[in-house]
Amino acid sequence: MSSTALLSGHRARTIRRLAHEKTALIIQDTADLNFSTRKHCLDLGRIGKNETSTESMGLKMHSAMAVTTETEYPGTNLRAMRMRMRVRRVVHTLALLVALASSGCGGGPTPPPTTPTPTTPLPALSAMLSEKVLGSPTAPVSMIAYSSLTCSHCADFHLVTFPALKTSYIDTGRMKFVFRDFPLNEPAIAASMVARCSGDRFFTTLDALFRTQASWAFLSDYTGGIKSVVAPLGMTANDVDACLASTDLRNGILSIKQGGTEEHGVNATPTFVINGVKVVGALSYAEFASIIQSFQ
Fold first, then answer.
1. Stronger pLDDT, 178 or 37, i.e. the higher one
2. What b/e readout covers 103-115, taking b as 16+ CB neighbours within 10 angstroms?
3. Other CB atoms closer than 10 Å to residue 236's CB: what's the count?
4. 0.85 cut: is pTM over it?
5. CATH assignment of 125-293, among 3.40.190.10, 3.40.30.10, 3.40.50.12780, 3.40.50.720
């Protein structure tokens, strides 16, 4: 029995069902395109069995077309509808040609393999874990700040008090400022890692993360929030992913935190160590200035 005879009943039923519809979308049944005799196409895999129970290899294709019935256009009859349905054979043929060209089954040259996306290079680990310092190394006063990027009091210090301290003491060579990580939770660890992955933009990235703390620090998808914050600074999503994949960087940051606890008894943020004197909390500019000037 021919394929036309096999499908004739199905076509007749389809035409009857659609006779009273204004518009119909005709989708051809999945067709087995059997390439099992072509050795270079065997890797397309097994499809299944066709009407004759013969197993086939190759592709499955669909084709579709839209037709209108005589309720929309009175001059349209079922014979015309049948003619339109035959267009699907042309669609089927065109789809097959495209599939052959894209799968390399047409006998042409095999397309070159896709080049994998290279891993985003990170700065050297020693550079990322180095002390993050602002000011003259010979300044008479040293302020070490232990902060968590998800700590709201740390953000208050950084955004309100620190700019004035920088103008009065750091930029004038009177004080050296050292930032050390003391992350309180997973989002803070991730943010610290990204800041240290930013290379010479560390303090710029730190400032951006503190300024936008409310937009990422308390999200379930804090990584996505961090990516949005650092994107304008030139860090791509791939940069962030590569950064967060560094176990050595993560362990290094946790080691900095542990060092703060062991060396200075830090257990809360922000905590400052000014020429060896521990100060806990985000004090006012005047209070910090009084302490700094006592060493000058």
1. 178
2. bebeeeeeeeeee
3. 12
4. no
5. 3.40.30.10
